[in-house]
Design a protein that fits this description.
By secondary structure, the protein is an all-alpha fold. 81% of the residues lie in helices and 0% in strands.
Amino acid sequence: MATDKKVLMRGLKYLFGALPLFGIGPVVMHSSFKNQDHPLFIPVFGLGAITCLVGMWLMFMGLRTVISSMFDGEK
C-alpha cells in the first residue's frame, strides 16, 4: 500500500487549520453568552457558531483527504 504524500500533506493542513478554530469558536460563543444584554450579542454569537462550523468542515475534509491518500492508491 503506497501513500500519496502530497495528498496526505494537504489533508494534514486541513486538520491543523481546524485545531485553532476548535478553540476559538467556543471561546467566542462563551463570551457572547456572558454578555447577553449587549447589542452585539447576536453577531458575536453568529461569528462563534460560524467559526465552530468551519472547524468541523475542515476536520471532515482533512480526515477524508488523509483516508483518501492512504486507500485510493490501491487501484
